[in-house]
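Slides due. Your pick:
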Amino acid sequence: MKNGCASLVWVTQTNRKTSTKGAYFWILSHDKEAAAKISFLPLTSLGIYIFFFSLGYGPVPWIMMSELFMPEAKEKASAISGEQEKGLLFIGTTSTILKNTHGLLGLGL
C-alpha cells in the first residue's frame, strides 16, 4: 500500500515540476503569433495539474483528519471540518472575485 501512495505522490510532483511552468506566458512574451496558436495551453495545463494533484496530494488532508480524530468523534468532526473547508473556500473565492471586479467588496477600494 505504501508504494502505491508514494508513487502517486511522485507522479504528482513530477507533473508539477514539468507541465505547469508557465510555458505559455513565456512564449506570449517572446512570440505573440505562436502564443495565439496555443492559447488552449493554460487551461489544459491547469486541468492536468488538478488531475494529478487529486491523485497525489489532494487526499492528504482527509487522510490526516481520519487519523487525528478519536473514533467516537470521527463522523461529526469530519463533517464539520469538511463543511468549514468548503465554506472558507467559497468565501475566499467569492471575495477574490468581488475584489477583482468591483474593488474591495464593491467599495472601490
The mean pLDDT is 76. DSSP finds six helices and no strands in the chain.
